[in-house]
Amino acid sequence: MKRYHFFNSIRTISVSLLLVMAAGCTNLDEVLSDRITSGNFLQTKDDVIRDFLRPFEHSYWTIQGGATFMLQEDSSDELMTPNRQGDWFDGGQFQRVHNHTWTPNDGYTNDAWNALYGGVTLATNTLEDLQGITDPTRFDMTQAELDDMIAEVRTLRAWLNLRLLDFYRNIVLVTKVKGETQGGPQASPQEAFSFIEQELKESLPKLPTRQSLGANAIGRWTQGGAAALLVRLYLNAKVYTGTDHFADCATVCTDMLAGKYGQYALETRWDAPFDYTNPTSAETVFGFPGSFGLTHWQYDGGMYFWMLPVNAPFYFGFTDFGTANPKYALQPGRDVDSTEYSFALGKPYLKFRKYPDDVRLKTYKNLGNSKREGMFLQGYLPYINASGKTDTVRSTKGPYPLFFRDQVGMFLAAKPGTKIADKTSNMNNADQNSGLTPVKYPYYPSDDLNKISSAYAEIRFAEIYYSLAECKYRAGDKAGAAVLLNTVRARNYPAGSPSLYKPDGSQLTDQEMLDEWGREFLVESRRRTDLIRWGVFNSGTWWDKQPDADNHTAIFPIGQNVLNVSPQLKQNPGY
């Protein structure tokens, strides 16, 4: 079957259309058309490809658009958006996320719903167009190619619906949009679960494999991608429906590891799954293609660029996006006097420090030639300034040198090790020194040809190992879980490292399993979901966060603006 790299195809088609339009400017015969309808929109194969691509473009944006990333991370024990001397207070909205005290009137409760349903609506509209094609040869297509497109869009919609189920639980299953004038009724979580499962199972055999697509696999839903979504659905099934599907999850994971849905493999370096070579990485099960000159949503403001300390781009030598504005940082592991907090959750950086030979613990540094080392921005960050002199990243409030630390407080110009008088450490009392920053996707210098060109790795093969490990752990097979985890963890430590788990898995506990999920998938937009699955999202304590009064905040409220225009919807319990 002939395959296409659709994301490149759409760019080529757009340029071609512009050239055709320019060439035709000498023909002044006017043809009037008052509207484009479903009956005259799809005229060529290029039209079909454009229709197919539209929901993918929007869906890539939803990894951070509509506050989806913020809600997954800031509500957990991983990231924080504190009030930094007046910056990012924003009416206390991020503190409400941190404390799980959001209300239906908070804009992000509308925004996430609208962002994800925007994708569902676009995907459904495209499906109706594609399913309406009765003669694919008219578009120089085979039936198999058309079936492939339909299966990919159904899988994309299943990914969006799965996230809606995770966020809101009581959702609307949209299967038709053309001619509709109002939204449908809410489905129960079990109905939504069954719908998503059916969509994936029916689509899976019609999808291509990674191998059949070759270098063009990035951005395409494959059999492996659909199977991985089933893994996510089954791993969290008990949370969603009250009935566990860990056995089903284990079966799909085992099949994936055996190559049933395509050949995948782990990278040997921890950073390779996030680097500019990741579009062709065997660890990328599904990703959205990115590039500096086109789309790169993970590098934009709603996600990782707002995770950089102020002026940190000078340290990278990357100044194309400005000087950064730190919205996110890791929650601290120590108080202002450097004493470790006693709670078990949170403290993400110290969870790495538990295994001190972890290569990721090095300070992030660009090494030249599109290479880097380390994952954390910490301490002083030196660079050569415009005068050719050695400088260090400075505050915009001082401008004193910034020393980034695993603490939150008003350190201001205090040198490391200095005891400060103000002992307050909370969401409302932070400065620009407060909190460390992880850098998973590289920021190579502005003159590096591979800057900002990583794909966004939405699903990595490592997730399948960890999901199967959790299933084995829950079934009492700690040794089996340890082997799977170590298969991934080995790349994070030197050969023969004592940091690998013992073969019998005796070191594994519920807390260690949750900590290890946090280490491997730090800031990959899943921490809230993992905390809920392990039963500690509402009952747990972490930095400046006490347990919730009850469990109703395990799902978000449907925003009031959504309810105002959709009176058939009922608010989620507790709101």
From TrEMBL:
<dbReference type="InterPro" id="IPR012944">
    <property type="entry name" value="SusD_RagB_dom"/>
</dbReference>
<feature type="domain" description="RagB/SusD">
    <location>
        <begin position="423"/>
        <end position="575"/>
    </location>
</feature>
<dbReference type="Pfam" id="PF07980">
    <property type="entry name" value="SusD_RagB"/>
</dbReference>
<feature type="domain" description="SusD-like N-terminal">
    <location>
        <begin position="95"/>
        <end position="235"/>
    </location>
</feature>
<keyword id="KW-0998">Cell outer membrane</keyword>
<keyword id="KW-0472">Membrane</keyword>
<dbReference type="GO" id="GO:0009279">
    <property type="term" value="C:cell outer membrane"/>
</dbReference>
<dbReference type="Pfam" id="PF14322">
    <property type="entry name" value="SusD-like_3"/>
</dbReference>
<comment type="similarity">
    <text>Belongs to the SusD family.</text>
</comment>
<protein>
    <submittedName>
        <fullName>RagB/SusD family nutrient uptake outer membrane protein</fullName>
    </submittedName>
</protein>
<keyword id="KW-0732">Signal</keyword>
<feature type="signal peptide">
    <location>
        <begin position="1"/>
        <end position="22"/>
    </location>
</feature>
<dbReference type="InterPro" id="IPR011990">
    <property type="entry name" value="TPR-like_helical_dom_sf"/>
</dbReference>
<dbReference type="InterPro" id="IPR033985">
    <property type="entry name" value="SusD-like_N"/>
</dbReference>
